[in-house]
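Appendix B, Record 12. Input sequence as logged:
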Amino acid sequence: MKLERNEPSVDFLESVSKMKYFTKLNSDQKNDNSFSVMLKIASYNELNIIISSLLKASINALNNKSDSEEIDIMLLLEMALQLLPSDEMELLDEIYGNVFEIEKASNEV
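Logged structural output:
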């Protein structure tokens, strides 16, 4: 009897998997309770604008405490933090250091 009750659920799961539903969230391999979402961005400039907008919205929500109940400020700040391109910033520091050294060497000559 239990097998008969499970058949519709198995059929349902098979049909859902064939229809390509639940494609927005990607399971995190390291943590079963965590997912990632693909965010298409045209450039680092656009990423910077998105992060700035999230931070500005958070600041405005904190300044207008009456409206902040409708906006989850912590969520906006966590999103901004996750979007920060940390690795790229390290690369920019290295490039800046190299440019600084080249300019210093050219001024000594």
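The mean pLDDT is 83.
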